[in-house]
Amino acid sequence: xxxxxxxxxxxxxxxxxxxxxxxxxxxxxxxxxxxxxxxxxxxxxxxxxxxxxxxxxxxxxxxxxxxxxxxxxxxxx
Amino acid sequence: xxxxxxxxxxxxxxxxxxxxxxxxxxxxxxxxxxxxxxxxxxxxxxxxxxxxxxxxxxxxxxxxxxxxxxxxxxxxxxxxxxxxxxxxxxxxxxxxxxxxxxxxxxxxxxxxxxxxxxxxxxxxxxxxxxxxxxxxxxxxxxxxxxxxxxxxxxxxxxxxxxxxxxxxxxxxxxxxxxxxxxxxxxxxxxxxxxxxxxxxxxxxxxxxxxxxxxxxxxxxxxxxxxxxxxxxxxxxxxxxxxxxxxxxxxxxxxxxxxxxxxxxxxxxxxxxxxxxxxxxxxxxxxxxxxxxxxxxxxxxxxxxxxxxxxxxxxxxxxxxxxxxxxxxxxxxxxxxxxxxxxxxxxxxxxxxxxxxxxxxxxxxxxxxxxxxxxxxxxxxxxxxxxxxxxxxxxxxxxxxxxxxxxxxxxxxxxxxxxxxxxxxxxxxxxxxxxxxxxxxxxxxxxxxxxxxxxxxxxxxxxxxxxxxxxxxxxxxxxxxxxxxxxxxxxxxxxxxxxxxxxxxxxxxxxxxxxxxxxxxxxxxxxxxxxxxxxxxxxxxxxxxxxxxxxxxxxxxxxxxxxxxxxxxxxxxxxxxxxxxxxxxxxxxxxxxxxxxxxxxxxxxxxxxxxxxxxxxxxxxxxxxxxxxxxxxxxxxxxxxxxxxxxxxxxxxxxxxxxxxxxxxxxxxxxxxxxxxxxxxxxxxxxxxxxxxxxxxxxxxxxxxxxxxxxxxxxxxxxxxxxxxxxxxxxxxxxxxxxxxxxxxxxxxxxxxxxxxxxxxxxxxxxxxxxxxxxxxxx
Lengths: 77, 778
What we know:
Helix content of chain B: 55-70%
Strand content of chain B: 5-15%
Structural class of chain A: mainly alpha
Mean pLDDT of chain A: 78
Number of helices of chain B: 22
Radius of gyration of chain B: 61 Å
Largest sheet of chain B: 6 strands, mixed
Distance between the termini of chain B: 52 Å
Structural class of chain B: alpha+beta
Shape of chain A: elongated
Largest interface: A-B, 42 and 51 residues
Shape of chain B: elongated
Number of helices of chain A: 3
Mean pLDDT of chain B: 89
Oligomer: heterodimer
Distance between the termini of chain A: 47 Å
Low-confidence stretches of chain A: 1-13
Helix content of chain A: 40-55%
């Protein structure tokens, strides 16, 4: 309760539980090396909105876990 | 930016049969709407709910036919007359009705309002797990992540299936390869078929292909001579046959009449034309050629006879011509067959000369000179006859070479197939492991996340519940997502030592009501409470006085978490207990009637009323005495109850001021009741500065004058009349001093709540500006 009128508003756009969980999940998957940092943003967007499709999971996990080809530079994007 | 509601105006809405306006004080953390049943409390809350939440208020879920929303309109009133306005400082939102529903206009974001009615309590605590989930879903709905998790699981299953299929394919190929290897008697270089196959594949197919191609060339060459010989013999026989036929025709022509065939043909043509001419003429009397007199029919008979004799000869000459043509064709074919046979034999000679076909070399063929080879076809036919028996042997060698090539191709296909599948499986194994780990993470995170929220809600709800039911051995033990049933939340409670009972099965109705209230409050606290306005619509009808007192304390404490709390109640106990509270705007609703609609009046704090009366130039002796008495009775009654003071027993538990003063006097004289006020309570960021009030002196001051309450405030009698105004004013001032010495300067209530460390009692407002000792009296 704000005791007096004119008290600064503290309302912020609160994240819904899905969004909060999405951030936790994305962080954990990146930490576990199952999603590359490069794909984290799109993963997060899809977790928050439309859901990640089967092909997305396959592609991202494949790319994150693929053995580095000899002489290939690490992806620094 | 959410601000408290400052005004609501109702016209034509529910019980507001006449326009009704209520100003809400935004400086008060709680607005209490007090009135008897049917006074219009719910109508006011409904109006706010309808405007702020686009609902149909308490009509939600009511079975009253279609378009139940039309009942929001005052009965007998035109829908266009309905107008509900909610104002928050400079913003306002107005709901108007058309076609049985209310449409709200207003530019600014509407206030966040959550309303609790008894029907919602039932959904929270007594409903099925799925309905409970619906009520909680706003806090635990992670459906998008859940869908992603489901897709991940499907991909994982699909990958497992793919690996299974590939493994089956690989095993089939390995089994076929193994079978071939065993058939070859398990040759080296290693102990497995794969090593053998690898060696075979590495050897390459070129040698096998070369051998096969060579044998195909040899077999084709030899087979061509066999075919050529047969063809030549057939052509030769054919030619001989048609030559005989020609000779027969020649003989027949020689025996025919001595007319040359050419002359006969010309004559036949002339006769044919003459016959046509005569047949076309209707009548004739002479021959058109020799002019000899002759009838038409006679002339036609002569022509027909001559025509028949010459036709036979014509047929023979045609036969001879056709047969001659066939003889010529047969001769041409015979020549071709000779040439072909020569070419086939030349090819065999080339093949033999390479010297790699022992079967042909062994025949020691003497090849003729090819320039005149056709002159003596018998020699060529004889050579063909010698080649013919060798052909099957060569064909077997060719077929064997073909099998070697096929086998190589199979081994190559299996070995490479197995290798490729192994690589694919290894790749898929890696991805599958990744997907499995990802699934485990997503699943565990989701379950832990939603369960964490439920645990938090449960913990807070139970904490609140324990405030209402301390030491009753009853509580909310668990809220849990049901893994087997999507979108379901189960609950278990504690009851008398049992920790896994469904509350709805063992709790009393009032326990369920307070539990539902606590769960709802815990939920409301999770979502931007300082921007949220709570509406509580008279939900504690089943709660007894003791528990209601705790609910009041709890709500007084919790209200500070929210932007504004508007409570509707018909409980006078609640109303009275709040009569001295600072932070509460008390609105008293009078009796409703159709003619006047809702009637409401803001009630000031009794203490403020007393202050005003004491300071009033036109002194109201009786009013001051009466108000002071009421104020004293209410605060001493609460003290006596809190410290369990002895009072004269009476049937109705109604105590006079005198009895209460006597009962409480020892609190000050013997038990050293002490109240401390934090001098810095109203200054943010300053350290606490606890200063003791002189409650004992204030109590003694009142004690000396308390008789005034009766003699001036309640009765008409001579002793009362003798009491000077100054004494009455002093009684009022002493009462004010005592109340100020005992209550919190912020919330205006006694410090009743025992502090966590058990050393003192504190008030329940957010400032917690007052504390009182002792906690209890032995």
